[in-house]
Input
Amino acid sequence: MIKLQIVGNLGADCIQKEVNGKTVINFNVAHSEKYKDAQGNIKERTTWVNCAYWTDKTAIAQYLIKGKTVYAEGTPEADGYTNKDGQVAATLRMRVQNIQLLGGGDTQGAGQGNVTNTGNTYAPTMRTEEPMKQTAPAADDDLPF
Output
């Protein structure tokens, strides 16, 4: 399984539709990062991900508004196409399995929260690592060489 995770801002309010008796919530997430080019100039690159969240829990749609910061994870899909200038381009889409509201945008009555798509068999879990236990250094006569 390939999994995509993104933290970014919604580029527009989500659109909720009924397709073949199922509900899909479509939204776009923009992730921007800054980097230095070969000449040392600071540049910014934005990656857009078109997201589709198939769910029966449609209450989340009211919080998916332009400017909100979200964390979303799911399975990626990429498609190539020719744009209006005749250049080959690609689009990145994600079938969302888990979404978390992080804040930003209009905060009137919109709290933070998690929503997991219970219709999927994949259920992400949080993993915690325990620090390695410190042991006393081996005595010289315990070394194998």
The longest strand covers residues 88-103. Residues 53 and 96 are 5 Å apart (CA to CA). The chain has no helices and seven strands.
